[in-house]
Every structure is written in C-alpha cells, then in structure tokens.
Write a structure and sequence with these properties.
Length: 214
C-alpha cells in the first residue's frame, strides 16, 4: 500500500527527546479534499501525521519523527499514559475523512488497519486500549465524538491481534453439532478448515446415530 506525501506546515520539528508510544485516532468531521486542505493551512494551527480518505488513500502530512499538532490540548483526560506534558510529543495522529456518525468505508478500514500495523512494527507500540486510543481520551470535553461512536474499535483490535471473530450463525452450528455428539468442542473450532477426513468422520458418525452398520 502506498503513502502519498503532502507537507503540512503545522508541526514542531523533533519531539524534544521523546518517541511515539501511542496512536491517536481522529475523525476529520469533513470531506476530502477539504479536510486535507484545512490540515495543510497554516491558519488552522492543526495537523495530523496521516489522513486516510474514504477511498482508502493514505496521505502523510507530518513525518513520524516530528510532532504533529493533533492532540496538544488536554481537557479532563481519561488516558493512563498521559504524563502531564504535551501529548503531541509522544503520539502519532491518524485522521480519517468523514463524520462521527458515519462508519469507515471498507477501503478506509483496510487502509487504517494496514497503517496501524506499520506503525506498531516501526515503533514497538503495544496493541491495547492504552496505546491505541481515540482523541476523546485526551480531550473528553471538546472532542467527545472523536473519532465517534461508529469507529470500529473491536474489529480493529481483533484484526491487529489476529483474533477471528466467529459469526453467530457459525457458533450455533458448532453448538448444535457438539450437542448431537458429532464433534468435541475441545478439539474443534467454528473457524477451522474442514479436511476431507474430518467430513468423512462426521458422515460416519451420522450413519452410526441413524443406526446404520458401518
């Protein structure tokens, strides 16, 4: 996946000896290209390291090694890693085109998932709710809906951790199969691939249950 470079003037050179320890997710509350233009406008006095459009295009506005101006205002924070200094110095900000009540598009989600993985690998960021957060955790007063209720936190953490979310219909089939004595729950999972031998074994068990001599 490609990252397009567009320089914003709104940043501080360096991080005053700090390194990124967390990723802060934002929603732009605007559409492209207006949100990109605003983040690159010196009068805005705001920026982010990255902006991801609804088409899944990633723009880098500020280099990782510099401090973007994305979460410097702290107001009633609910973030355990806040240490009383400017959070811009030890965070990376990702803006997403759109509005708080809109879900990310699928291309946008895949782009942010890919970008999170790159940043986690580059900076050694742990995958947990202290190191991957929303802007509202830093400013709960002025940014309570950033990135908003539609942001896919559960899916993002599951995908980053490699956790497979089991659909309800699949789990029901698993439960009914265990209850019928076809499989053992401790030996199988709903998401495993069924080999031909596994399918043959199930067929034999069905025939046995039906009283057929096999």
């Amino acid at each position: 996946m490609e990252i397009l470079q567009v320089v914003s003037p709104n940043f501080s050179t360096g991080r005053k000896g700090r390194t990124p320890i967390a990723i802060v997710n934002h929603i732009a509350a605007g559409s492209f290209p207006g949100c990109l233009t605003w983040l690159c406008n010196a009068q805005a006095q705001a920026s982010a390291h990255f902006l991801i459009t609804r088409q899944g295009v990633i723009y880098q506005l500020v280099q990782d090694e510099d401090a973007a101006w994305h979460c410097g205002i702290v107001n009633e924070p609910d973030w355990s890693l806040y240490d009383g200094t400017n959070p811009n110095r030890y965070t990376i900000g990702i803006e997403h085109e759109g509005f708080p009540d809109e879900p990310l598009t699928e291309p946008q989600y895949q782009a942010t998932l890919w970008l999170h993985r790159q940043l986690i690998a580059k900076w050694g960021i742990p995958i947990d709710t202290d190191h991957i957060i929303g802007h509202y955790r830093i400013d709960s007063v002025n940014r309570p809906n950033c990135p908003g209720p539609s942001f896919p936190w559960t899916r993002l953490f599951n995908d980053l951790k490699g956790v497979v979310e089991v659909p309800e219909w699949m789990q029901k089939i698993m439960d009914r199969s265990v209850a019928a004595g076809l499989i053992e729950s401790e030996k199988h999972s709903p998401t495993e691939n069924a080999t031909k031998w596994f399918c043959l074994g199930i067929a034999l068990k069905v025939l046995q249950i039906m009283g057929r001599d096999v």
